[in-house]
Amino acid sequence: xxxxxxxxxxxxxxxxxxxxxxxxxxxxxxxxxxxxxxxxxxxxxxxxxxxxxxxxxxxxxxxxxxxxxxxxxxxxxxxxxxxxxxxxxxxxxxxxxxxxxxxxxxxxxxxxxxxxxxxxxxxxxxxxxxxxxxxxxxxxxxxxxxxxxxxxxxxxxxxxxxxxxxxxxxxxxxxxxxxxxxxxxxxxxxxxxxxxxxxxxxxxxxxxxxxxxxxxxxxxxxxxxxxxxxxxxxxxxxxxxxxxxxxxxxxxxxxxxxxxxxxxxxxx
Length: 268
Fold this sequence. Notes:
It contains twelve helices and eleven strands. By secondary structure, the chain is α/β, with parallel strands linked by helices. The strands form two sheets. An eight-stranded mixed β-sheet has the order 2-1-11-10-6-5-3-4, with helices on both faces. A three-stranded antiparallel β-sheet has the order 7-8-9. Residues 1-25 have low confidence and may be disordered.
């Protein structure tokens, strides 16, 4: 079942209404019954990209963990995320942004404590698919021309390429609806992704057997909206579409928090 909505200039239209929660904090017993929200950032970002979402979830009584994504490859990154999931006891809602969607799809497989998945402008790959292959499925991504490739050497001596977004192109490419001063900070603190990570094929797809929500970003220049819609339909996700850039968790933190809470409430 799909719940569709379009959010324009901060106003929700359709069957999914974005509303602020009441000012009063929930009772302690209710907070303890709620799942922990585990957030996985994507490429060209870090855990601070979730700050606005975390503040709103905390205000509404949720415990939150923003995991550090190594951005080396879906398999190894999923192993790293699994260590976080194993440490967090009790039920969890797992949220992935961008490339982080590839990671949560693999990390959540066969984990009964992950009660729902929330994808935020993210990849939902099927086994055998890569982030790069999905990006190119439909036209619209301008990311290749914005990239700054940097040769790197790993700890084991192997060489590869790290990908950054050029700082002078970062806001237009990644965060067009974020204030310029904030986007400049994001550009300076971005974390690179291994080029090979975007080419590595997925081996798991937890969205096939877990309740799934998906925020599609209609003004995304990284993952074309047509690609996001294709993946959301295939996953039978509860879908919310918003006129936002790839950095929707920054520009529309209330919307993202509301969708996460909706997933948490629906799976309790």
